[in-house]
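Researcher: Good morning. I'm working through a list of sequences from a screen, and I'd like to move beyond sequence-only analysis. For each chain I'm collecting a predicted structure so we can compare shapes side by side. This is the next one on the list. No need for commentary yet; just the structure.
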Amino acid sequence: MANSKIALVTGGSRGLGENMAIRLAEKGLDVIVTYKSNKEEADKTVAEIEKLDQKAYALQLDVSKSGKFMAFADEVKKVLDSHFNASKIDFLVNNAGIGINVPLVETTEEQFDILVDIHFKGTFFLTQKLLPIISDGGGIVNISSGLARFSFPGYSVYGSLKAAIDTLTRYQAKELASRKIRANVVAPGGVETDFAGGVNKTDENKRTAIANITALGRMGKPDDIGGVVAFLCTEDAKWINGQRIEVSGGLLL
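Model: Good morning. Structure tokens for this chain:
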């Protein structure tokens, strides 16, 4: 029997990344997840994937430390050989991220730099360093945000960087076309996760406000997002390339 295709999901220990990883496994893919510090949560994701009879492995990665990406790529190669009997991954999902909500006038250079390092520089150079081990005909899914299309106060840096990801993805789709590697963006709206301190789970005023400006009338859940990412990593999505798919229930239409 042919080996399953393999996806690597950054930030796959909880929230959106965990759901993406599990939904990928449901579609018959093996999955490598990365975690920054919470190995226990990552191991739970691995266990859930293995219950679905797919292979999984968790690797530590801080996406803000681009100087360590070559060493990480070497680690991925070793794990592919030892655990998956493979030499390449088929899909890269750039999901890991943090949220900092702070007004323009109060944003520090330190906050600016950490967001740039994680959300743009990290995505750019991690993809670059992993490209030699992404299979021809594979794919990249970058995670953006509705905040690249509309504006909520306090997210000027984050939203701007996600707009940069939308543009970068089109360049990836164009420049990697010779290898038949597709690149697409999934842009969630407001989702109930621990992201940015978990306010989308705990702040009832914010939850109500977002539900009221969403056509489908509620906050998003991780399970609303993961299946779309998984779909983009299947043969059914083979002709989708360079596209931004907003998965927000119709937020601010």
